[in-house]
Write a structure and sequence with these properties.
This protein is mostly helical and 182 residues long. Helix content is 71%, strand content 0%.
Length: 182
């Protein structure tokens, strides 16, 4: 009776392994597309942390694949897949935020060129022009500070279809263009 129960557990586990090994392989493959080094260089550790957590979950799922408890293995594979999805969302959100900061930097450079040209054309004597220039600089500066301090999902441009998962931010995250990085 005990051997028959063990055989049934082994059969269930073998079926579960066949069914979930592909999902685990796919999750591991998806995780490799995240350019973790680029985020680290930009001063963003949240992506590194999310990827590390996903790798840990994948490791636990691989270990669970070797056990005899099919339910625990299925739960571990599902948890690993969810962690990989969360890491991908985190990377996408942070990538969009860094891209927006980069675009603001380009806007600031364009404004510098406009100011230089205006100086050559003696337009800086116009109070209206200098006031417009100041408003533009203040707007770019305010937007830059806001982008640098945004929490994931706070701005519509950073939200993804899966709003239930967000990248955890830490106070140590300092993307390019952040006032502390200047």
């Amino acid at each position: 009776m005990l051997s028959q129960k063990l055989l049934e557990m082994k059969r269930a586990m073998d079926e579960a392994r066949k069914q979930y090994q592909g999902a685990l392989d796919t999750a591991a493959e998806r995780l490799t597309v995240i350019p973790v080094d680029q985020f680290i260089i930009a001063g963003i550790v949240a992506v590194k942390d999310a990827v590390s957590e996903a790798r840990d979950m994948l490791y636990k799922a691989q270990k669970a694949m070797q056990e005899i408890d099919a339910e625990a293995m299925v739960a571990a594979v599902n948890a690993a897949s969810a962690a990989v999805e969360a890491a991908l969302i985190c990377a996408e959100q942070e990538s969009q935020r860094v891209q927006a900061i980069s675009e603001l930097d380009q806007d600031e450079q364009a404004l510098d060129l406009i100011e230089h040209s205006a100086q050559e054309l003696a337009l800086l004597d116009s109070e209206q022009f200098t006031a417009s220039l100041k408003v533009a600089r203040d707007s770019i500066g305010t937007a830059g500070i806001k982008l640098a301090t945004l929490e994931p999902g706070e701005a519509k441009s950073f939200s993804l279809e899966r709003k239930d998962q967000q990248c955890p931010r830490r106070s140590t995250d300092r993307p390019m263009g952040h006032p502390d990085m200047l």
